[in-house]
Amino acid sequence: MIADVLADTTSRMQRAVEAAKEDFSTVRTGRANPQMFQKVLVDYYGTPTPLAQLASLANPEARSLIVTPYDKSALKAIEQAIRDMPNLGANPSNDGNIVRVTMPELTAERRKEYVKLVKSKGEDAKVHVRGIRRKAKDELDALKSELGEDEIARGEKELDALTRQHVDLIDDAVKRKEAELLEV
């Protein structure tokens, strides 16, 4: 029973860490990266649609990206969605067939802002992991009537170790992203 709770908790915590890493990849560094545009939602015929479903993204140079829409009528909407995306600072231009996105050079001040943003997202992810821990602890407490207190205490120690491990993974991902952002 305790093993089931811990296995479920481990998988949920791993998914939370993966989601955090995926979220970090949307914060831009000095180079243009198609992953930065994962969260761009385009208003396509009144429905918010992810950019990846409406266009292909190509990265011909370090600081530029070419967005080729599958439907040319969505060109203006794609351009507007990229321009309106917060924390991107991209400058899209459209030539009638494609949207060219040029990423401006990052200033030291802007890099620091991105580091703060990544740290904030890291804290949110750690709070999520701790929330998963709290639910698992409640599940373990519910098993107290069926199992002995020693077994529950052992399970809680394992749960704490799992939580510590996943929080450390998030911290490592934050440090890697911070180093990537501050790299000139």
TrEMBL record:
* GO-annotated biological processes: translational termination
Q: Where in the cell is it found?
A: Cytoplasm
Q: Which GO terms describe its molecular function?
A: ribosomal large subunit binding
Entry's CDD domains? RRF
UniProt entry keywords in alphabetical sequence: Coiled coil, Cytoplasm, Protein biosynthesis
**HAMAP family xref list:** RRF
Q: What is the protein named? A: Ribosome-recycling factor
- Organism of derivation: Microbacterium azadirachtae
Taxon lineage: Bacteria, Bacillati, Actinomycetota, Actinomycetes, Micrococcales
